[in-house]
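Thread title: Can someone regenerate the structure for this chain?

I was given the following input by a collaborator and told the matching structure tokens would be attached. They weren't. Posting the sequence so someone can regenerate them.
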Amino acid sequence: MGKSFLARVPMPVKLGVPVAAGLLATACSAAAGTSGSSAPASSGTSGASTTGTVIGTHAGSGGTFLTEGGRTVYLWVKDGMNKSTCTGACASAWPPVMDKGQLTASGGAKAADLGTITRPGGGKQVTYDGHALYFFAGDSAAGQTSGQGSDSFGAKWWLVAPTGTQITAADTAASSSSAGSSSSGSSASGGSSSGGSWG
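Best answer:
Regenerated them for you:
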């Protein structure tokens, strides 16, 4: 029965249907592509990119420190240059900052200091001036620094200055976040940054 129906359909209609469908699909994808291309790929400096990793900065009471997506990042003094030794339970408490596609810098962070290393289990971890970067699971809001000065897993965890040095000064966001405050840690009250080089 299907053959008899097709036999009765004129040849121009048989040829025209696939052509019309192809033209419609092309027109729809072109329209979608036009609206989707209004945001250039190089706009990854906003910090809200879902296809990239943006290392930015935050001004805290202990000095300006690095962030990713607003979250504070740390270095671990037990790591060597361009190495990460934080795995297993350590990586659960201190999740590595992973490269999600396009790695860029914003604020006071320097693009020239950004890099990546391969994690022991695979994936690319972000580095800054050779230091592997980590989040702290105990920070629950942007700008919190409750991991500052921790010595969990056998070595100190420090904030990272835009110069690539560790910040060993206390940050008031650490005490306010551990008290359950939702403060962003942008208080300008005293405290000085003692950025020391780490080795």
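Confidence is low (pLDDT under 50) at residues 17-49, 175-199.
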